[in-house]
Amino acid sequence: MHQNNPKFGADAYPFEQRKSWYSAVAEAYNRVRPRYPQALINRIIELTQLPPNAAILELGCGPGNATVAFAQKGYKLICIEPSMAACQLAKQNCATYPQVEINNTTFEEWEVETERFNAVLAATSIHWITPEIVYPKAAAALQNNGYLILLWNMTAQLPYEVCQSLKEAYQKYAPSLGKYEDRATQTQILKEFGQVVTDSGHFGGLVSEQMQWEVTYSIDDYLLLLSTYSPYMALEPQQRDDLFAALKGILEQNGKNSVQLSHLSAFHIAQKTL
Predict the structure, then answer these.
(1) Alpha helix (H) ranges present in 176-273?
(2) Phi, psi of 14 (to 5 degrees)
(3) Which H or E run contains 58?
């Protein structure tokens, strides 16, 4: 089950719960969640032609996984993050970039500064904000012809055969999880996210690109990564502990001390319509 499944997001939990959803795993999120490929960041800048002094509003910056990549380009960022724990990590990670401002609030509660920004950025976060609020408010914050930039890191996938070897543990402890998502499935999920942007009526000219890449994790770091995905966060603590112990046991029995994960990263860019 994908972490960005509609079951997990703006429609799934009350507003107050969403505000602190990632607080308990903020340190783990900072440590093991993948950053966004530099090639994708460069492509976004190429397509949007953001000026060197561009002002970017970032929604749900977390610990700054995408923030740093744009701050390194010299852009001014105003970041909004509801989790205090994530805010503190973002401030640490962006400490060398004085042009980055981190605000501990929600986009819903933030007082919009109309037509101020060249771009509104959301990195694997926009689905946590009610569509009826986020799209008109983002458009209001943008200058004429400003850009909405959505970055995505889809759920990391084990090789199919490794995924199959773990089925028994999932069947025992968390039958709804552990499904293998191929690239076609994840591409379809991305397409649906892009359609929501278009359907909002506030943005046009949607452009999407994606890239697949691989990275090796230790077994412990892989389980830590899983612990930052919403479907696993939603498990009862004992259920999650039992599942992770079983997964670790199977992987180690198969002679593994690390796993290779496939990541699909992508972006959507759309321009504010007048």
Answers:
(1) 183-199, 219-226, 230-233, 237-253
(2) -60, 155
(3) strand 55-59
> What ranges do the domains of the chain cover?
15-156+178-214+263-272
SS (H, E, C) 114-142: CCCEEEEEEECCHHHCCHHHHHHHHHHHE
The pLDDT tens digits of the residues spanning 148-167 come to 999 999 999 999 999 999 99
CA-to-CA distance for 130 and 13, rounded, in angstroms? Answer: 11
Query: Which one is the CATH code of 15-156+178-214+263-272: 3.40.50.720, 3.40.50.1100, 3.40.50.150, 3.55.40.20?
Result: 3.40.50.150
Which pLDDT score is estimated for 10? 52
Angle between helices 237-253 and 219-226 (to 10 degrees): 150
- What is the model's pLDDT at position 7? 42
Would you say the C-alpha torsion 227, 229, 235, 239 has a positive or negative sign? negative
Q: Compute the half-sphere exposure of residue 72: CA atoms within 13 Å on the CB side of its CA.
A: 11
pTM to 2 decimal places: 0.92
